[in-house]
Amino acid sequence: MQYKEFKDGIKLSRLGMGNMRLPIVDGDYAQIDYEKAKKIVDCCIDSGINYYDTAYIYHGGQSECFLGKALSRYPRDSYYVADKFNMMANPDFKAQFAEQLERLQMDVIDFYLLHGTDDASLQSTLDSGCIAYFDEMKKQGKIRYFGFSYHGSPALLPQMLNAYPWDFVQIQLNYYDWYFGDAKPLYEMLAEANIPVLVMEPVHGGLLANLTDEAAKPLKELAPDKSLASWAMRWVIDLDNVHVVLSGMSETAQVEDNLSTFDEALPLSSEDHTRILEAAQKQHAAVAVACTSCRYCCPDCPMGLDIPFLIKSYNDAKIGGTWRLGSLMAIEKEQWPSACIGCGECMAHCPQSFDIPEIMSEMTEMMKTME
Predict the structure, then answer these.
(1) d(CA 73, CA 335)
(2) Where does residue 363 rank: exposed (0-12), middle (13-18), buried (19+ CB within 10 A)?
(3) Domains plus CATH for the chain?
(4) CA count, 13 A, side-chain hemisphere, 27
(5) How far is 339 from 314, CA to CA, in rounded Å?
């Protein structure tokens, strides 16, 4: 296992275990298969992984309980635990933090995060008083390092960064989001601010481990024996400011595949980068609306919609889940896809003949599930 120095002489394993996708019983997400899950933790500990990530809401609240129990069998100084405050689940941050310590059976949480900050929730998070409280918990030694996970736009990240001297930030970072999302500007802003980056979704929720045959071809031609997931992992750990890459491993086979990747940690060649870009482009063409943001559709829209922006949000939701549309809640309703009147003026100017009214209609239905 490779390690990277974080702060204060602490060395973190480059691979961390996420505890959001643990094995479960009878398809019940809230019922963890303790024996199978413990074997995964044991395999990780034995392999030198020392960073374990959980959250208040994972597995219906059972992830914290499981992790605390599983890790209690090992010396407390042999691992680091990351946990998160979720305002949507319980805005009473004092009560939630106390409950988390109890669930984990711990007196200290090594890495504590504000969970899933995005454009819609950012201001309410800043206004809630939770940052001052968790800073006090840090001063009391109940939190060692304080950060946040971020799902928002690059435009609002500086506002969050200016709110506190953060120890680290966790972002969704993978090669697909680098080329077709906001990962690149987010990473570069954090690197410029000298804030360590921890990575979630390095395989984009499994997307990059299950590429289409056409997208997988350039990678398989170059290294037929390597898993597609290993390419995604190698790409992430090639970035200098990445400290820990989280993987939600639900079986020991995934642990073993990741370990072989992180034990080697071979730097990527220029040919590797070319092949990865080709794979990303082919995957994008297969699963997304390939809008080029030419904006020809915008001038004649009677509702004044920012159609390329909405299509980008649509692609994010189709690939990453409907929850990604949460960022639209931060803009005026008059700019939501539901404002589309289906006149078709946009289609008359679209060089790629996208059925934009149909896309807006589908987005409207997707957003109804979030209300």
Answers:
(1) 53
(2) buried
(3) 3-277 (3.20.20.100), 307-368 (no CATH)
(4) 0
(5) 15
Grouping H, G, I as helix, E, B as strand and the rest as coil, residue 6 is coil
Spell out where the chain has E strands: 3-5, 11-13, 15-18, 24-25, 28-32, 51-53, 80-85, 109-117, 143-150, 168-172, 197-200, 242-247
Give φ, ψ of 4 to 5 degrees. -135, 135
Going from the C-alpha of 242 to that of each of 82, 150, 154, 185, 264, the distances in angstroms are 16, 15, 18, 14, 17
State whether residue 291 is helix, strand or coil: coil
Residue closest to 147 by CA, chosen among 61, 5, 243, 76 = 243
Name the one residue in this structure whose structure tokens are 């394993």. Answer: 13
Pairing of strands 3-5, 11-13: antiparallel
Q: What is the pTM of this model?
A: 0.81
C-beta contacts of 167-170 below 8 A and 24+ residues apart: 167/7, 167/111, 167/195, 167/196, 168/6, 168/111, 168/195, 168/196, 168/197, 168/198, 168/243, 169/195, 169/196, 169/197, 169/198, 170/113, 170/197, 170/198, 170/199, 170/200, 170/246
Per residue of the chain (371 residues), what is the pLDDT tens digit?
899 999 999 999 999 999 988 998 988 888 999 999 999 999 999 999 999 999 998 998 999 999 999 999 999 999 999 999 999 899 999 999 999 999 999 999 999 999 989 888 899 999 999 999 999 999 999 999 999 999 888 999 999 999 999 999 999 999 999 998 889 999 999 999 999 999 999 998 788 988 989 999 999 999 898 999 999 999 999 999 999 999 988 888 888 888 988 887 678 999 999 999 999 999 988 877 867 677 889 988 999 999 988 998 888 888 777 887 887 887 889 999 999 999 999 998 887 788 999 999 999 999 887 76
Alpha-carbon separation of residue 131 from 103, 109, 112 (angstroms): 22, 15, 11
Q: From CA 313, how far away is CA 330, in angstroms rounded? A: 13
Q: Using alpha carbons only, give the angle 148, 152, 155 rounded to the nearest 5 degrees.
A: 110
